[in-house]
Specification:
It is a single chain. This protein is an alpha/beta fold. The chain has a single domain (3-52, 87-195), classed as Rossmann fold, CATH 3.40.50.360. Helix content is 36%, strand content 22%. It has helices at residues 17-32, 53-59, 68-86, 103-112, 157-166, 186-195, and strands spanning 3-8, 37-42, 89-95, 119-122, 125-128, 134-141, 171-178. The protein is globular. Bound molecules: flavin mononucleotide. Flavin mononucleotide (FMN) is lined by residues 10, 12, 16-19, 95-99, 140-143, 180-181. It is an enzyme of class 1 (oxidoreductase). Its cofactor is FMN. FMN binds at residues 10, 16-18, 96-99.
Length: 199
């Protein structure tokens, strides 16, 4: 039975384009595999904290030496890693905020990247340990970044792909709803994005 992890990073609920686009991707995945189970990870309702000293101390202390404080500090990171390891497919809804990803998504990434657990450094450099997954990124942007003058300002897609690749997720499909703030384009942008979904 396949498991889909639906990662939400827009706080806009039913009005959110990235959530609607991610849901359309998930509907198509479930049409292919009706038994697939979807787990929703809404990072806006349960945000991960910015990394603080307690988290870093716990990350870099060997597990056998963990104190109660280390264990408490690392518990959400451990849970997030279990969820991503358990999933076969990860669907990330990503609005563009000021050319980058929402900070809630960055915080989740910060709690997932753990040396020795989700990546390691070997003789050939970094090696991702979260392997055998498929990821979809449902991107929503006010402007247009797939081509044209603003293409160089997209720090959403290259960054998410770099991060996922670093932890071992290299099979990534990007679907963009773009031009959502541009009159004449915004009216059809989401429908065009949904029509462009190819699993
Ligand atoms: C705080 C904020 C910052 C934004 N920054 C950008 C931006 O830099 N570039 C852009 O094209 N759109 C930007 N937008 C527009 C959003 O990307 C767009 O409204 C998108 O639909 C938001 O995703 P959502 O509908 O899933 O919430 C911004 C919107 C907000 C609320």
């Amino acid at each position: 039975m396949s498991k889909i992890l639906n990662v939400i990073s827009s706080p806009r609920g039913e009005a959110s384009n990235s959530i609607k686009l991610a849901n359309a991707i998930i509907d198509q995945l479930r049409a292919q595999d009706p038994a697939a189970v979807v787990e929703v990870k809404d990072l806006t309702k349960s945000p991960f904290p910015h990394l603080e000293e307690v988290h870093l101390n716990a990350f870099f202390t060997p597990i056998e030496h963990h104190t109660e404080e280390n264990k408490a500090a690392i518990s959400h990171s451990n849970q997030a890693i279990r969820e991503i390891m358990d999933a076969n497919v990860i669907v990330i809804g990503a609005p563009m905020y000021n050319f980058g990803i929402p900070s809630v998504l960055k915080s989740w990434f910060d709690h997932i990247a753990r040396a020795g657990i989700t990546f390691k450094y070997g003789a050939n450099g970094p090696e991702g340990l979260v392997t055998g997954k498929k990821a979809y990124i449902a991107v929503a942007t006010g402007g247009i970044y797939s081509s044209g003058d603003s293409a160089g300002y997209d720090f959403v897609v290259p960054y998410i792909k770099a991060f996922l690749g670093f932890i071992g997720i290299t099979d990534v499909t990007v679907i963009r709803a773009e031009g959502l703030a541009i009159p004449g384009i915004q009216e059809t942008a989401l429908d065009k994005a949904i029509d462009s979904i190819q699993l």
